Amino acid sequence: MAAAACGQSPAVHSGTTAADLRAYLAAVEPIRLGVNTLLQGADPIIAGFQKHTLSDSQASAKMGALEQAFETDTVDINALQPSDPMLAAINAPYAHTFILEDSYLNALVSGMAEDNVSNLPNTQSDQRAAIIEWRVQLEILGRKLGVALPPDLQQAGRGEIAPSVSGGS
């Protein structure tokens, strides 16, 4: 992850094939898209917490259920072990962003229960940098191998990363 954060991109491995890239995308896309959908469910919980239409314990319980579902995705993405060294190097920092997000969600659950969300970890910059690096490396590899990437992949790393209780991203 340090290399990704410093902008040092791994060189495209000459042994990576189009089939390798397609197999990786086939494995990662259901997880990525599922997480996108799952995290959209955080907004109504946060709104209920902020507007007090949910009690602290209700908001914490709902966010806790969301965090537990996310935990499964965290394990799934970190369990991906591409046999291709280049894809493994691309995946590792991306998979780590799930650990950072799970940590944030866990802190959010606790903060909601205590009605104090002022000390949440700030991992968005690290997550954003790693996700953008992941996307760029996939784009480079896809271009080199003639593999079309999912069109919505361009959105990875843009917008809100962690559900915000302060109204900002």
Question: What key attributes describe this structure?
Answer:
169 residues, mainly alpha, 6 helices, 0% strand, disordered N terminus
Short note summarizing the structure:
With 169 residues, this protein is mostly helical. It is 66% helix and 0% strand.
List the helices and strands and how they pair.
Layout: H1 2-5, H2 18-40, H3 42-51, H4 56-79, H5 85-113, H6 124-145
Helix pairs in contact: 2-4, 3-4, 4-5, 5-6
Explain what you see:
- This protein has helices spanning 2-5, 18-40, 42-51, 56-79, 85-113, 124-145.
- The protein has 169 residues and is an all-alpha fold.
- The protein has one domain.
- It is elongated, with a radius of gyration of 17 Å.
- It contains 6 helices and no strands.
Gyration radius (Cα, Å) is 17 Å
Strand runs, count: 0
> What fraction of residues sit in β-strands?
under 5%
Query: Could you name the ranges where pLDDT drops below 50 across 5 or more consecutive residues?
Result: 1-13
Q: Determine the mean pLDDT.
A: 85
**Structural class assignment:** mainly alpha
Overall geometry comes to elongated
The rounded distance between the terminal residues' Cα atoms is 22 Å
Largest sheet: none
Task: State the share of residues found in helices, binned by percent.
Answer: 55-70%
The structural domain count equals 1
Task: Give the SSE string.
Answer: HHHHHH
Number of distinct helices: 6
